[in-house]
Specification:
Mean pLDDT: 90
Number of strands: 10
Low-confidence stretches: 262-266
Shape: globular
Helix content: 40-55%
Radius of gyration: 19 Å
Strand content: 25-35%
Distance between the termini: 48 Å
Largest sheet: 6 strands, mixed
Order of helices and strands: EEEHEEHEHHHHHEHEHEEHHH
Strand order of the largest sheet: 6-7-8-3-9-10
Amino acid sequence: MLDIRELHLTFHDHGVDNEVLHGINLHMDAGERLGLVGESGSGKSVTALAVAGLLRRSQVTLTGEILFEGRDLLRLPRGEMRKIQGREIGMIFQEPMTSLNPLMKVGHQIEEVLRIHTDKSPAEMKALALEVMEKVGLPDPPATYEKYPHQLSGGQRQRAMIAAAFIIDPKLLLADEPTTALDVTVQAQIIELLKRINLGRGIGILFISHDLNVVRKLCTRVAVMHGGRIVETGPTEEVFHHPQDDYTKRLIAAIPTREKRKRTHG
C-alpha cells in the first residue's frame, strides 16, 4: 500500500538548507499496524507530514518516491493530492486542541471530511457522525455532537479526532504521537480503539511514537529512526528481543520496566 523509496527532505529557511531525511526506505502493506519510533528530532513526524502532503512545497525540497497504491504522491498535482487527503489518507495529531477548531461544534468537525469528499445530505452526515462517535466511545453522542472542543476532556478530544479521521474509511491512518498527552489509562483505551478500527475496518495504521512500550502494544512491525535515517525494521517482538542496531539497543535498554522502577523507588 505504501512504499517510500530513497526519500530525502531538505528544509529551506531564510537561505539556509537543512536536510532532515537522508534516504528513507519504508514499506507498509494494506491493513498493517506499523510503528515508527525514535527520539524527538529523528524525523518521524516529518516523514508522516510528507506522506500526508502537509508540507509546503515552497519551503521544502523532496526527492525520491512516496508510492501510495502505485501513485507517486510527490508528483501528483495539488488537486489530485487533495482528493487523497482525508479521503484515502487520514491523520491524527498529537494535540487535538491545536487541530480542532475551537469555534466549531465537535459534530460538525467530525463531518468535515464528508462535506469535502461526498455529496451526502446534512441528515446523512449527522447520522454517520453519531454512529462513529458511538464507535469511538464518546459519551452521549447527540449531546457531544453539539459541544465545543473546550467542553471535552483530553481523551474525548482525541476520540473526536479519531472519529473525524476514520469516518470515511481511509485506507491509511497516520497517527502522530496520539497518546503522548494522555494519562496511562486513557492511553490504553486509545490504543485498544485504534486496534479495533484496524481489525474491524482493515485500515492500515502508521503509528508514530517515541514510546516503545506503546508501540509494542499496538504494532505488529516496527521501524526505528535515528538522525533522519531508518536504522532498523522488523517484527515488533523480534526487534524488542533481538535488536541489531546499537541505537535500537540503547532505546530498548532505556525502557522503564517494573523491576527498574522498583529498584529506583526502593
